[in-house]
């Protein structure tokens, strides 16, 4: 099965691969993409899903082969190591999200933010904790497109908190749709306990 995912923005190639793999018990799915970032996301997704993957250049494009369900050597496919334990894929990271968009352009920034969390979900590259503050709390309250994605991320074991002071400031205390109300103590404790802290916004 070959999927042409060229000219598709992230995380669409991963979603297309996920859909194709769900339809087969075992076999090979090939995805053609036109940028390295998409190929890298596909390999990460494959390994975190318990599959094998290989990337090769096809002219100006990248061909990603994902093998599901058997560990035999497929002709022309160099098998990468299978991820043995995906029961807890969380990284030892505290992620602080202090904005509801990525960058200054409002419409584009919100599209990018949605794509960021969708990529996190499908690749299963998730942090230990996400803390939303400032306008970031709008993502856990008002953004009906992103809330279902965040709920799926939460189901992977990610702890999600939204700043209580920020919720009150925006009048959103009763609108929290995913995670829990948090305080700055969650951030301070997370910075001390987690291996790395990543700030967005």
- Could you tell me the radius of gyration in angstroms? 19 Å
Shape: elongated
Structural class: alpha/beta
Number of domains: 2
Helical coverage, percent range: 25-40%
Q: Largest sheet, if any?
A: 5 strands, parallel
Per DSSP, the total helix count is 6
What is the strand arrangement across the widest sheet? 8-7-6-5-9
Uncertain spans, ≥5 residues at pLDDT below 50? 72-87
CATH architecture of the largest domain: 3-Layer(aba) Sandwich
Instruction: Give the number of DSSP strands.
Output: 9
Mean pLDDT: 87
What is this structure, in a nutshell?
With about 200 residues, the protein is an alpha/beta fold.
Task: Name some characteristics of this structure.
201 residues; five-stranded parallel beta sheet; 9 strands; alpha/beta; four-stranded mixed beta sheet; Hypothetical Protein Ychn, Chain: A; Translation Initiation Factor IF3
Structure notes:
The chain is of the alpha/beta class. The protein has two domains: 2-68, Translation Initiation Factor IF3; 91-200, Hypothetical Protein Ychn, Chain: A (3-Layer(aba) Sandwich), CATH 3.40.1260. Helices cover 33% and strands 25% of the residues. The strands form two sheets. Strands 8-7-6-5-9 form a five-stranded parallel β-sheet. A hairpin with a 2-residue loop joins β3 (52-58) and β4. α3 runs parallel beside α4 (147-155). The model is unreliable at 72-87 (pLDDT under 50).
List the helices and strands and how they pair.
Elements: E1 2-4, H1 12-22, E2 27-33, H2 36-48, E3 52-58, E4 61-68, E5 91-97, H3 106-123, E6 127-132, H4 147-155, E7 159-163, H5 164-169, E8 180-182, H6 184-193, E9 196-200
Parallel strand pairs: 1-2, 5-6, 5-9, 6-7, 7-8
Antiparallel strand pairs: 2-4, 3-4
